[in-house]
Design goal:
alpha+beta, Rossmann fold, Elongation Factor Tu (Ef-tu), domain 3, four-stranded antiparallel beta sheet, about 20% helix, SAM_OH_AdoTrfase_N_sf, SAM_OH_AdoTrfase, SAM_HAT_N
Length: about 260
């Protein structure tokens, strides 16, 4: 299975081209669009979000991560392997938190290049084909250019000790990393690191915890441990981002 995690947005021609690139190499591999509204051009915020999503990814999956403001520059292209999961994308810190919270971590540099490589769309031309070849490594019935009997590493990647870009980002950060369509704001903090009686200070208000939306009075704001195990700020039947002026990167205080 191949999963796509990008900041491309759900509209436009980009997602379809990524799918097409995969099918050209492995036409029987399931494709899942995990997320295409990751924090735009923000590898740091996206790294916390991806790390929260990674534990639920199926075994043997390949996740293509593209939040890549440095596309076309001299930034490297890499593969992260965590046990039996793979992550393919730019060497810009996007996979750093996922690696830190995983076991059996191995890193690879992508050495393969297609005949034509766009300066602005490595997701289609480089990352998707590599992901397809990895995903098809033990799958019978693939085309001759991606034989099941060949090692997926041959001519594609070389193992390295670690990525060139390894940011010293904290394990948890008290700032907004994602805002959903309801205006709920996910923080870069794992809920297991916060006491259930803790308060979160946002502009103009101090929020207590609730188990879920229905446990809070209508119109009231609260924080809760969301389904991904992250701290999230919400308003029952309201929009927390608008109410408190929160944006991606806005800091809050957890006490």
């Amino acid at each position: 299975m191949i999963l796509f995690f990008t900041d491309f947005g759900w509209l436009g021609p980009y997602i379809g081209q990524m799918h097409t690139a995969v099918v050209g190499y492995a036409n029987t591999i399931p494709i899942v669009d995990l997320m295409h509204d990751a924090p735009a051009q923000d590898p740091k915020a996206a790294a916390y979000l991806l790390a929260a999503l990674a534990p639920a990814m199926p075994a043997e999956c390949v996740c293509v991560g593209v939040v890549d403001p440095g596309v076309g520059t001299d930034r490297d292209a890499i593969v992260l392997r965590t046990g039996n999961r793979f992550f393919v994308g730019p060497d810009n810190g996007l996979f750093s938190l996922t690696a830190r919270h995983s076991d059996a971590v191995r890193w690879y540099r992508i050495v393969w290049r297609p005949e034509t490589l766009s300066a602005s769309f490595h997701g289609r031309d480089l990352f998707a084909p590599i992901a397809a070849r990895i995903a098809a490594r033990t799958t019978p019935g693939q085309e001759a250019r991606c034989p099941a009997s060949a090692s997926w590493m041959d001519g594609l990647v070389t193992e390295i000790s670690g990525p060139a870009v390894s940011p010293e980002w904290a394990d948890d950060i008290d700032e907004v990393i994602y805002i959903d369509s309801f205006g709920n704001c996910i923080l870069g903090r794992r809920a297991m690191t916060v006491d259930q009686h803790a308060s979160i200070h946002v502009p103009g208000e101090t929020l207590g915890a609730a188990r879920t939306f229905g446990d809070a009075p209508e119109g009231s704001a609260f924080w809760y441990a969301n389904s991904m195990g992250m701290v999230e700020i919400a308003v029952n039947k309201g929009n927390a981002a608008e109410r408190f002026g929160l944006k991606i990167g806005t800091p809050v205080q957890v006490h």
